[in-house]
Amino acid sequence: MTAVFAGNEVRSPEERIGALADPGTVTVQQRSDSALWATANLRGVPSIVFALDHRLQGGAMHAGNCALIVSAYRLAIRDGRPVVGLWHSAGAKLQDGIRSLHAVAQVFHVMTEASGRIPQISVILGPAAGGAAYGPALTDIVIMAPAARMFITGPSIIREVTGEQIDIDSLGGPRAHGETSGVAHVIAESENDALDRAAELVELLGARRSVDTATVADRPFDDALPDRVRRAYDIHPVIDRLLDAAPVELHPGWARSIVTSLGRLGGGTVGVLASNPLRRGGCLDSLSAEKAARFVRMCDSLGVPMVVLVDVPGYLPGVTEEWGGVVRRGAKLLHAFAEASIPRVTLILRKAYGGAYIAMNCRGLGADRVLAWPRAEIAVMGATAAVRLLRRRELAAVSDQERPALEAAFVDEHLANAGDAAAAVELGVVDEIIQPDRTRSAVADALAGLPTARGSHGNIPL
Amino acid sequence: MTPIRAEMVAKVVEVVAAVGQDVLPGDTVLVLESMKMEIPVLAETAGRIDQLTVSEGTTVAEGEVLVVLE
Question: What's the CATH class of domain A13-205?
Answer without folding.
Answer: alpha beta
